[in-house]
Design a protein that fits this description.
With 152 residues, the chain is mainly beta. The chain contains no helices and eleven strands. Helix content is 0%, strand content 45%. The strands form three sheets. It has a four-stranded antiparallel β-sheet with strand order 4-5-6-7, with no helix packed on it. The chain has a four-stranded antiparallel β-sheet with strand order 8-9-10-11, with no helix packed on it. A three-stranded antiparallel β-sheet has the order 1-2-3, with no helix packed on it. Keywords: Repeat, WD repeat.
Length: 152
């Protein structure tokens, strides 16, 4: 079952089977590519995707980790928060928000991420325009949500 591999959304765009290696490449509309073992259906790459990235028109925010120079965070209009390893050129974690992110920042010690929510575009306001969330950097779990300002 391709959905058990962990894509952001379970919408397959293509599948390719290699009979020589019994491997299956599965691509999702969320710009994720996974490799499955064709005999038992397991993810060949320890639960992660081969390729991943933001899949909606804009990248809203980027922040570098204050203590670990190789790590950075991105948020975008695809409603995802992603932690990346620049040294190994791979995505480490991803979480799906309920609205798009427009900016992000790490706490001084790097344990928290603050994500500003909404489009930031007058006339195209999101449901939670001006709100923000605090996430654990370690696993991207929601720790706090607040709306400290009104929409544009």
């Amino acid at each position: 079952n391709a959905s058990t591999m962990g894509p952001v959304k379970n919408s397959i765009s293509s599948i390719c089977y290699d009979a020589l290696t019994s491997k299956v490449l599965v691509t999702f509309q969320t710009c994720e590519v996974f490799e499955m073992d064709g005999t038992d259906g397991r993810n060949v790459h320890n639960g992660g995707s081969i390729i991943a990235g933001h899949f909606h028109p804009t990248l809203g925010g980027l922040a570098s980790h204050p203590l670990q120079a190789k790590l950075f965070c991105t948020v975008g209009s695809d409603k995802t928060v992603r932690i990346w390893d620049a040294e190994h050129k791979r995505q480490l974690r991803v979480a799906l928000l309920d609205t798009q992110g427009s900016c992000c920042a790490y706490s001084k010690d790097g344990t928290l991420l603050i994500v500003g929510l909404g489009s930031g575009v007058p006339g195209k306001e999101e449901r939670k325009e001006g709100a923000f969330v605090a996430l654990s950097e370690e696993d991207l779990t929601l720790l706090h949500e607040a709306r400290a300002s009104k929409a544009l």
